[in-house]
Write a structure and sequence with these properties.
9 helices, alpha+beta, 13% strand, four-stranded mixed β-sheet, 437 residues
């Protein structure tokens, strides 16, 4: 992890902490405490947990610091066994205390103490280490900002009215076909000098066969064809575990889809709309099992994460890898649909021509996270940089790449490795297909 100077870290702290409160600002008090499913968390918990993270830092590095509340340390811990006992995730919505008012007061207190602490950080003997941990804490909060969007959608969906919303782009380019990409040796992973999580490192060589990858994400219209041809009723397309889930959960469509006679409707932050009217948007809220089933039905497969990363970052003419699909320049609102675009939904396929890769692949950053066929496992030579953060999850999960419309702009990289269990679909997850050639 790179160093961050005190002025920069102060600005980033204020900006990041303010964004969390911007997301929850439209909520009523009652909304903060509801847990709609075992895999969700009440908004109040996110607000407190992201403050708990910084309180653990104050406990360690601020002389004479007194714990705000032992009860808060218990309730707002998530899965960090090394920091003491914690409430079970499924029970976060079973407690009414601390109240919303008390949680917000806790957050304000931690903010004041952290800002004061950071103002004088240059004189601290471990200043560089603290800046690194603060940056990790802010990246952790950005993760929870995206999770907040997922949880609020599951709780309120079209009833949620964000403080800021911009219309989606109306100008778009038709995107069709697949790009053929030459195989060979490819350097997978992160090797820059800015922030990146430890699970993105170390960069290492992998060998790829020649492959082709879809230039566009699989659309709602594409997925409707799969459904109309009996995709959810035909075991031939499904992995055995996926077929078990389809039957047990009685899946007939992606999450947030509703049947109206013979037609399908999709409920999201924009309201309730006919799926056919959204046919040119990427399909989202699908599990790995659904993505893999569609890919097999279409005569293709899901890309590996190495294939995805090469398609996103490799420029054959320069024989080198770049930071983003469009090159090394920073992300802006013309290149990708991320949180700061404030669209609160995926945009039409072909909306961000400036963001396409050298290979002509569109929307590889933003809009929806993309499932890959790769298992979430450590890279060769992996070394943990923070115990209990990424390495404890290296089992039974699949890698997703690229970010979504709920991902903060600073938070995403082409090498970012998100991960979820193959049956999960409450996150903003879509996919594109690949095949050998």
């Amino acid at each position: 992890m790179s160093s961050v100077k005190s002025a920069t870290i102060l600005d980033l702290f204020r900006e990041t902490r303010a964004r969390t409160m911007q997301i929850v600002a439209p909520l009523e008090t009652e909304d903060f405490v509801i847990q709609t499913a075992e895999f969700m968390s009440p908004p109040r918990w996110h607000v407190g947990h992201t403050s708990w993270f910084f309180e653990t830092l104050l406990q360690t590095y601020k002389p004479g610091y007194k714990v705000y509340s032992e009860d808060y340390l218990f309730y707002f811990n998530s899965y960090y066994e090394g920091f003491g006992s914690r409430i079970e995730r499924a029970k976060r919505g079973t407690k009414s205390r601390p109240t919303v008012r008390e949680t917000l007061a806790y957050r304000r207190q931690i903010d004041e103490l952290m800002l004061d602490f950071l103002e004088g950080i240059n004189s601290h003997a471990e200043a560089e280490k603290i800046r690194t941990l603060v940056r990790l804490g802010l990246e952790h909060e950005m993760q929870h900002q995206e999770l907040l969007v997922y949880d609020i959608k599951h709780l309120l969906c079209d009833l949620y009215q964000p403080e800021q919303r911009r219309p989606t782009p109306q100008v778009r380019k038709p995107v069709e076909g697949m790009s053929e990409i030459e195989g060979g040796l490819f350097r997978l992973g992160y090797e820059g000098d800015s922030f990146a999580f430890d699970n993105e490192k170390p960069a290492h060589q992998v060998f790829l066969q020649n492959f082709a990858i879809d230039r566009a994400l699989v659309s709602i219209g594409d997925f409707l064809e799969f459904m109309r041809e009996g995709g959810y009723q035909d075991f031939r397309w499904w992995l055995a575990e996926g077929w078990d889930v389809v039957k047990a959960e009685q899946w007939e469509a992606p999450l947030y889809w509703e049947r109206d006679g013979d037609e399908w409707l999709i409920r999201d932050f924009s309201g309730l709309n006919a799926a056919q009217d959204k046919a040119d948007e990427p399909v989202s809220h699908v599990s790995y099992y659904e993505a893999a089933a569609y890919a097999k039905w279409s005569g293709k497969r899901l890309p590996t994460e190495a294939e995805w990363e090469k398609a996103a970052t490799f420029q054959p003419a320069r024989n080198e890898k770049v930071a983003f699909p469009w090159a090394d320049s920073d992300i802006d609102e013309t290149r990708a649909n991320l949180f700061e675009n404030f669209h609160w939904g995926a945009t039409h396929i072909g909306s961000f021509v400036n963001g396409q890769s050298t290979h002509g692949c569109h929307q590889m950053i933003g809009d929806v996270w993309e499932w890959t066929s790769s298992d979430y496992a450590p890279y060769p030579g992996f070394k943990t940089e923070f115990d209990e953060y990424n390495d404890k999850w290296f089992v039974n999960q699949k890698v997703l790449r690229g970010g979504s419309f709920a991902t903060p702009r600073l938070h995403i990289r082409s090498t970012y490795r998100n991960f979820f269990h193959p049956n999960e679909r409450w996150m903003i997850s879509g996919f594109r297909c690949a095949k050998d050639f």
